[in-house]
Recover the amino acids of this structure.
């Protein structure tokens, strides 16, 4: 059986996917059509069915199959894909059953959440976006792909391209922050890293744009909650990264748990059929989210699982992850004439297409290679790449009196905090196959770099006392201060304090919504106790989302946002605090002053009564108890040097549609050390049919400038940047006046005007 199937497959694969056969079809289409013609209805439906392994569950799975039944189903052609089967050997064994024991030998596609690394962990995606260097995302994703592919995997459920404006929603750690333009740039980079230029390469894997759509807009930041979003925000904020990925050839999409204006995203024909597969011409497949087909009923939009299956397949959800709705009911629905078999054929074609592009029909076992698995994972090269990405992802939020970098005159440092010697939290949530407790902690990194400096370590307090692992809930330590006195003593006898506080790995991520994103537990109290004895505190934040830290921001002279920085986090922190690397990150998400300001984001609209800044003016759009402005704005971040902007110019004060405007600026490094600056360009469409934001990011460049040097930076603006979507999804380019800003943060003030004829 095996020999015959492989021979047939190889015979069909001697041409590339684009080559045209004599009847005008591509080889790929011909292969798929031939195979489809040989499939019976049950086998077709089997391709649409995805099961989890029992070894790892990434969602609630009360109906998960036992391994024996699952293997039987694979043999009977009732499974097209599996998730959470990892390892060359495990995937090889399951694949053999599909290829050698099922009637048509169609290989399985193995998916897994490879979000920021497979075994070598990179900074969480939100952190990586803070580098504003998409090349780093290409690097980290290509390494993640190489390791995942060596682990037998074909497909990652990443990148998450949800634009998130609500830091209470724990999944902001998985995305690129609050802005559609930045998210698009990072998402494209991630897909490029995962998929490379050739999906059939043994070191690349298929990517997945998720969660389509609106998931990050869950009401009140509560995960899985409903989404009420108008057409204007949907088309201008939520959808652009998805559209860009669909057009760039991302292999798959995943739909979302949420309803969107009442419609479960998984049952939305508008999103999946009209937009994605219609207008955007997408030819990959859509996988549901975990049981999101079954949840259509729980939302109250289907009477039973059968109706869920009907609604999802009709709406264009091609593969059923874990709901078992398709495998149970699609055949019946076809027999009853309720579902046209053409819909099923379309979904099958899409899935076979991605399997074909991965080269699985040519060699279904090529990813499951035990030798490659030994050689390609967790290598020194991968770890040093992780360190490079981690240090470039950090954001210097405050540096009074140039406390950083630590100079050679400093001879004693206190390293304190619940996260200071934590070698697990830097691995972050969604950590795939990371080895628990395998990260370089801040303490280890500092010790390794601190030649001749006395290090006085004290934990101070524990952050959580139990339940760190997925999926149990955290028990925050609010009472045990027994470590305070050691911490205070360490601070007393040291010239400077490095205080690591924030969130542990599992305080953000899926299902980690919080109503309170201030420092949890005793961390603020610990800071206050140390501050009484030593004011030279560098707060090193480790967290998966923006935090509300007004007191720290006021008192601590220096704050470094280090996020959950991955396997090499401690070394990367040492690189930054000792000045081996000059920080260059900028925030991809606004840090609110208090939780009540949420959702808070830089690209807001003016309102009819914009804030005057005067607290007496209470009939204006402002709060009576706090300012409108955040603690730290989007795009903000300091360096050990300073940059000045001058001579912002536009190539013309007026352009016509179809023309390109050049915007240039001089950026000078006015300090004494070399540094990198993220030069950001924002536009404002001053008078449009629909009110536009006061600022919208439309370009950025990260440039390295020598101390004392000046660089002239040029941007191009065209129809692509100057138009916007009406709420009905129509893209328009409206004549009129624009303002263009170029600077080092979203709070840039200097602008020039031009108009579009
Ligand atoms: C649910 C999550 O929402 C999704 O992002 C993930 O890929 C699946 N579970 C599979 O683990």
């Amino acid at each position: 059986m095996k020999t015959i199937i492989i021979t047939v497959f190889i015979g069909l694969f001697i041409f590339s996917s684009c080559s045209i056969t004599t009847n005008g079809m591509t080889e790929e289409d011909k292969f798929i059509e031939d195979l489809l013609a040989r499939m019976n209805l049950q086998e077709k439906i089997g391709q649409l069915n995805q099961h989890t392994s029992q070894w790892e569950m990434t969602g609630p799975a009360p109906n998960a199959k036992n391994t024996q039944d699952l293997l039987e189903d694979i043999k009977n052609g009732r499974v097209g894909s599996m998730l959470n089967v990892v390892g060359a050997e495990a995937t090889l064994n399951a694949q053999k059953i599909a290829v050698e024991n099922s009637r048509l030998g169609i290989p399985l596609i193995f998916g897994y959440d490879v979000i920021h690394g497979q075994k070598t962990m990179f900074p969480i995606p939100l952190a990586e976006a803070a580098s504003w260097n998409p090349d780093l995302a290409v690097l980290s994703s290509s390494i993640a792909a190489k390791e995942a592919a060596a682990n037998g995997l074909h497909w990652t459920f990443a990148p998450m391209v949800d634009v998130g404006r609500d830091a209470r929603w724990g999944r902001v750690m998985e995305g690129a922050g609050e802005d559609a333009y930045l998210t698009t740039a990072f998402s494209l980079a991630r897909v490029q890293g995962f998929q490379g230029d050739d999906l059939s390469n043994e070191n690349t894997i298929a990517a997945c744009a998720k969660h389509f759509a609106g998931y990050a807009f869950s009401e009140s930041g509560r995960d899985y909650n409903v989404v009420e979003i108008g057409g204007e925000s949907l088309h201008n904020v939520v959808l652009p990264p998805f559209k860009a990925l669909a057009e760039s050839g991302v292999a798959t999409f995943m739909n979302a748990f949420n309803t969107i204006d009442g419609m479960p995203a998984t049952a939305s024909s508008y999103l999946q059929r009209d937009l994605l597969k219609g207008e955007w011409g997408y030819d990959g497949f859509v996988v549901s989210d975990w049981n999101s087909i079954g949840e259509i009923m729980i939302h109250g939009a289907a009477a039973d699982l059968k109706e869920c299956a009907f609604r999802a397949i009709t709406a264009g959800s091609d593969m059923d992850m874990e709901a078992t709705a398709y495998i149970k009911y699609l055949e019946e629905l076809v027999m009853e004439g309720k579902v046209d078999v053409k819909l099923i054929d379309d979904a099958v074609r899409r899935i076979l297409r991605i399997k074909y592009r991965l080269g699985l029909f040519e060699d279904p076992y090529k990813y499951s290679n035990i030798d490659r698995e030994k050689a390609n994972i967790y290598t020194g090269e991968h770890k040093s790449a992780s360190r490079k990405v981690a240090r470039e992802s950090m954001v210097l939020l405050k540096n009074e009196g140039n406390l950083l970098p630590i100079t050679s005159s400093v001879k004693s440092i206190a390293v304190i905090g619940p996260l200071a010697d934590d070698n697990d939290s830097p691995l972050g949530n969604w950590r795939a196959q990371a080895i628990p407790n395998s990260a370089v902690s801040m303490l280890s990194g500092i010790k390794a770099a601190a030649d001749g400096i006395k290090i006085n370590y004290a934990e101070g307090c524990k952050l959580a006392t139990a339940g760190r692992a997925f999926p149990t809930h955290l028990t925050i330590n609010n009472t045990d201060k027994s470590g305070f006195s050691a911490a205070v003593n360490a601070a007393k006898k040291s010239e400077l304090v490095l205080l690591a506080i924030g969130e542990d790995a599992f305080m953000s991520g899926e299902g980690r919504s919080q109503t309170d994103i201030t420092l949890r537990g005793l961390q603020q109290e610990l800071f206050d106790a140390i501050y009484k004895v030593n004011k030279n505190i560098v707060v090193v934040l480790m967290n998966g989302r923006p935090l509300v830290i007004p007191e720290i921001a006021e008192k601590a002279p220096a704050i470094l946002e280090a996020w959950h920085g991955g396997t090499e986090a401690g070394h990367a922190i040492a690189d930054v605090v000792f000045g081996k690397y000059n920080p260059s990150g900028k925030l991809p998400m606004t840090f609110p002053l208090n939780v009540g300001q949420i959702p808070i984001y830089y690209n807001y609209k003016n309102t009819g009564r914009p804030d005057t800044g005067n607290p007496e003016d209470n009939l204006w759009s402002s709060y009576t108890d706090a300012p409108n402005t955040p603690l730290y704005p989007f795009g903000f971040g300091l360096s050990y040097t300073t940059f000045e902007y001058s001579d912002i110019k536009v190539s013309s004060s007026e352009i016509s549609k179809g023309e390109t405007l050049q915007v240039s600026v001089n950026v000078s490094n006015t300090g004494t050390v070399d540094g990198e600056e993220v030069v950001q360009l924002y536009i404002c469409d001053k008078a449009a049919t629909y009110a536009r934001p006061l600022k919208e990011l439309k370009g950025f460049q990260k440039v390295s400038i020598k101390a004392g040097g000046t660089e002239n930076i040029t941007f191009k603006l065209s129809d692509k940047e100057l138009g916007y979507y009406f709420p009905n999804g129509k893209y328009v380019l409206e004549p009129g006046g624009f303002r263009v800003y170029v600077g080092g943060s979203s709070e840039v003030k200097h602008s020039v005007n031009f108009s579009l004829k």
User: Anything to note?
Assistant: Residues 58-59, 83, 113, 157, 210, 289-290, 510 surround 1-deoxynojirimycin (CB under 6 Å). The first strand starts at residue 49 and ends at 52.
